[in-house]
Amino acid sequence: MLEHPPPEGHCSECGEKMCPGDAEVELTNIPLGTQLHFHGRCAAPAWLAETQDPEEWSCRTVGTVPVLQTPPPQGHCCECGDRIPASESEVILTDRKYGAQLHFHGNCALAAYVAAVVEPSGWLFHYRRIDAEAN
Ligand SMILES: [Zn+2]
Ligand SMILES: [Zn+2]
Predict the structure, then answer these.
(1) Is this model's pTM higher than 0.85 or not?
(2) Ligand that lies nearest to the alpha carbon of residue 107, given by its number in the listed order
(3) Which of 18, 58, 89, 103 holds its CA 20 to 30 A away from the CA of 32?
(4) pLDDT digits (tens, 9 = 90+) for 69-94
(5) What's the 31 CA to ligand 2 centre distance in angstroms?
(6) Residue 71's pLDDT is what?
(7) Pair 74, 131 in one domain
(8) Ligand 1 centroid to residue 98 C-alpha, Å
(9) Which strands make up the sheet holding 34-39, listed edge to edge?
(10) Distance from the CA of 97 to the center of ligand 1, in angstroms?
(11) What percent of the chain stands above pLDDT 70?
């Protein structure tokens, strides 16, 4: 995270401007009442802050939220909806309770990572790495 909060409307992680319509995470410092904003893809530190110190930090997603609720057809990425070729590395998120598996491209796995960090008792995160050389 940046040491000093960037100007209004900029991401606290990468410092770049937030675009309207982008998935955004708002991190509130509860005692101070100040708010930091993150791109959805940059929000891992925000989720970690809330996980480690929920008395002090509170996270909230704004706008388009990465969707985990409606899994696409088998073999498709739950984040972007595109097919995951068998030759590509993927992330598998397993629902520990129901055994359902969600699949993600390696590049689309932030939501999966966040789910596993926020609720490790609910989700199992597995990175299936394909060695391109092996094919
Ligand atoms: Zn960012
Ligand atoms: Zn994807």
Answers:
(1) no
(2) 2
(3) 18
(4) 456 677 888 888 889 998 888 999 88
(5) 37
(6) 61
(7) yes
(8) 33
(9) 34-39, 24-29, 57-62
(10) 33
(11) 84
Nearest alpha carbon to residue 93 among 78, 81, 107, 74: 78
Q: Are residues 36 and 91 in the same domain?
A: no
Q: Give the residue among 118, 127, 133 at the shortest CA–CA distance from 57.
A: 118
Among the bound ligands, name the one nearest to the CA of residue 11.
Answer: 1
The reported pLDDT for the residue numbered 121 is 85
111 φ, ψ to 5°? -60, -40
Any idea which ligand is nearest the CA of 16? Answer: 1
One domain for residues 17 and 71: no
Q: Please check whether residues 103 and 120 belong to one and the same domain.
A: yes
For residues 108 and 110, what is the distance between their CA atoms, to the nearest angstrom? Answer: 6
Look-up of token digits 């993927």: 90
Task: Report whether 21 contacts 64 (CB < 8 A).
Answer: yes
**Would you say 60 and 26 are in contact if contact means Cβ atoms under 8 Å apart?**
yes
